[in-house]
Request: fold
Amino acid sequence: MESSGGEAAAEWKVAVAIDGSDESLHALGWGLRNVLSSTAPNKLVLVYARPPPPFMPTTDTSGYLFTDEDVATMEQYSQDLEKSVLAKAQAILQPHEHVKVDTKVATGDAREVICDTVERIGADMLVMGSHGYGFVKRALLGSVSDYCVHHAKCPVLIVKRP
Reply:
């Protein structure tokens, strides 16, 4: 594809934040159908924020000592969750072979991981789902999508699940 100046069009890089929820997977599918072109050069970057390990002092308030086995079990759960989320995304991506896909996984607060990743990769757009929290839940829990709308260094498209 060429732009009006005769040079080849740059690759369109779209980041999609996924967390395994129905809302994020719907946003991924919607973005594939409505944002990415089947004729222009595209690159889709899946962004998954792995939850940070829980803070675990050597003992909890009851004096329980966390063993290496406990810590390993929690780490294994985190890895299994990551694999499950990425497998769900791959199932949605399968019919879209024309799209180049990259995956970025980082550990930390989802809001910061998503915004930092989008900036680092130079995304042209961020697509993400909305859990549809009302005002009170959003005020108490915070909203990842609201944070990204205000802090991401690219346009953000919030896809609401019907």
The helical segments are 22-34, 68-93, 110-121, 135-141, 144-151. The first helix runs from residue 22 to 34. The beta strands are 12-18, 42-50, 100-107, 125-130, 156-160. The radius of gyration is 18 Å.
